[in-house]
Amino acid sequence: MEQHTRRKKWLWLLVTATCALGFLYFNQQTAHAEPTYTIGTGTTFEPYEIESKDGSYDGKNNGIDMDILKAIAKKEHFKYKLKVMGFNAQLQAVQAGQIDGMMAGVSVTDARKATFDFSTPYYNAGEVMAVDKNSKIKSFKDLKGKTVALKAGTTGAIYGESLQKKYDFKIKYFNDSNTMWNDVHNGGTVATFDDGPVLEYGILNGVPLKIVTKPAKTTPVAFAVKKGENQELLHKFNAGLASIKKSGELKQIINKYLNGNAVKTDTASQRTIMGLIKNNKGTLLSGLWMTIELAVLGIICATVLGVILGVMGISDGKALPWTASTITYIFRGLPMMVLAFFIYIGMPDVIGQKIPLFTAGIITLTLNEGAYIGAFVKGGFKAVDREQWEAARSLGLPYNRALWKVIAPQGIKFMIPSFINQFIITLKDTSILSAIGVMELTETGTVIISKNMEGFKVWAIIAVMYLVVITLLTWLSNYVQKRMRV
């Protein structure tokens, strides 16, 4: 008995010691775990950001910003997830707390200092004016009465705006450099203002423009976080920057891109339709899958909301129909892009919680498409003869059973074509979510063009992909309608 007690005691001590060691090990691992930050960046601001052919930033020549961020993260032992979106969307996402910081060739200005905290600058950039390579425009004076292209929210835009009154030109805004440059080349606008290094790198890679002014308004470029927040991240960035600056690594990174050593001009075969498809098939399929995923989940959630609104719309009394009509009116009346920005950028400030990008996209589709579905669900129920209601109620069926057993099966026949049509509309509407950085098919096209400047060919490929999917959905719609008639 005594021996049994002794064994029990030793076993208990062994278990206790094992648990204690495990607890200490877990604490040590947790203490030394590298923090992970969400960093915003862009797709079309070379040489600051240059995506690899697979759409990632994991290669050797991903741009000044990406190389600097990788080097600093390695030095300071932190990890990061990149959120790719337009420049204006990044600014708003930092302010809303959706991302921890942004690394996108951000110029430090007095206006931005009011809402952002900046790192130590790692580069000084100057703004230049560029025109089509065959243009006769040589100076600001030649801009009088003409239209100039500016990228919204950038220092190039600020510089261009400061010259507008003096030189009497009009302004047309864009969200990315590539579209803006193409507009100048195609004659939609006559000139653009952008960072000198960005334009120089683009021209080296085939952008059909030429720079006609010397760099002006030199401003420092730095990493940005929301004012008063993420100070630990900012401290790590500054410490890492100082380290790579002292070692000479920072200078090597910058020289690699600005001296032309990292120019990435594609061969002629890579710029053909088949070459573009072959080189970007993974990215294209990923964008297509994201589009389909958004459309399917969006239409399912929107259908649930739409049915609820439709049922509320035909309810007895005034409160429920009025509520349904108001919700439908609001979300049918709001432009979808405004709704997307409100949910992804605006709502986090109100609720104090980040909303994941994909979730924001689904919510946007649900509210917008659900309002339209609610309208035709209500119409489908009302299309059923009133006598059907009366017959069902006269048989003693309560309202809910009469609705789902008698009216709904007949009303659905009227709704099916509208449901299929709304699915097609939802599929196309996913392209609007590219404005907040969702990497669906349209945003994928923008990314690919930013790497090769083959706008016509890439958009032709994207258009065909959309048409194929929509054609399949149309065939499905026709098949379902025929089956419903049988």
Automatic annotation (TrEMBL):
Which CDD domains does its entry note? TM_PBP2
Q: Which GO terms describe its cellular component?
A: ATP-binding cassette (ABC) transporter complex
Its source organism is Paucilactobacillus wasatchensis
Q: Which sequence ranges are marked TM in the entry?
A: 288-314, 326-345, 357-377, 458-476
The protein depicted here goes by the name Glutamine transport system permease protein
Please state every residue range assigned to the domain named ABC transmembrane type-1: 288-477
Looking up SUPFAM superfamilies in the UniProt record yields: MetI-like, Periplasmic binding protein-like II
**Annotated compartments:** Cell membrane
